[in-house]
Amino acid sequence: MRGGWLRAYALLYLVFLFAPILLLPLFAFNDASVIAFPLTGFTTHWFQELWTTEALHQALRNSLVIAVLNSLIATLLGVCAARATSGPAFPGKRGILGFIMLPLVLPEIVIAVSLLVVVRQVLDLQLSNVTVILAHVVISLPFSIAILNGAFANLDPAFEEAAQDLGETRWGAFRLVTLPLVFPGIISSLLICFIISLDDFVLAQFLTGANPTLPVYIYGLTRFVKSLPVIMALGTLLVALSITLLVIAEYFRRRGVARAGLKDSGGFL
Length: 269
Fold this sequence. Notes:
Its main location: membrane. This protein is mainly α.
């Protein structure tokens, strides 16, 4: 009986979580410009309109550039941090790691306002894509470290030691032995950081310059009722892209676990 209640709760939770997402493609292919039932007919007009809106293309280019650079920088820093934390203990190790992971528990609005004060009042910098990238690195780095910590923790240090015993330098052993073994975790980190940056609205709203990112552009469209079906179409594409990237990231994560010969304790999916 208790198992039945648990299954019912899980089912209701999934319906509550995913039902709004399922409405996106439903109204994206609806012929009416008003988001309401009953549906009036099937159309692909709203998707076609996405290809003719130059402002949308510019916002998409900004978001892609920011997301790619963020994922590269955050993953590079994540590799360095995970490498350091998986090695021998050093003074302040837990405190430093806890400080880096702090953005996971802080409200994003607090981080956005704090960074805005630092950028404008302390550093006196102009808001631009660079400020958005730096902000996204701050919130993406903890996720990268969390993923890569698992990848490095699964490694047997004897592999790298054996390479050094055979004449390789410390860097050579890391590049030729350790890096290929954690490569699935690196790919997973890149994809997750890319998704985080592409979907972020709060930080971009506070720190973007004259060229808005895609989420900020979508928010601007909500002021116009006739643009809502276009938002639904765009949201459908973004959800499909996010799910695809998450599936790929989970594939590489499980591949890394399988390569290490360990039991999978669960991941994104």
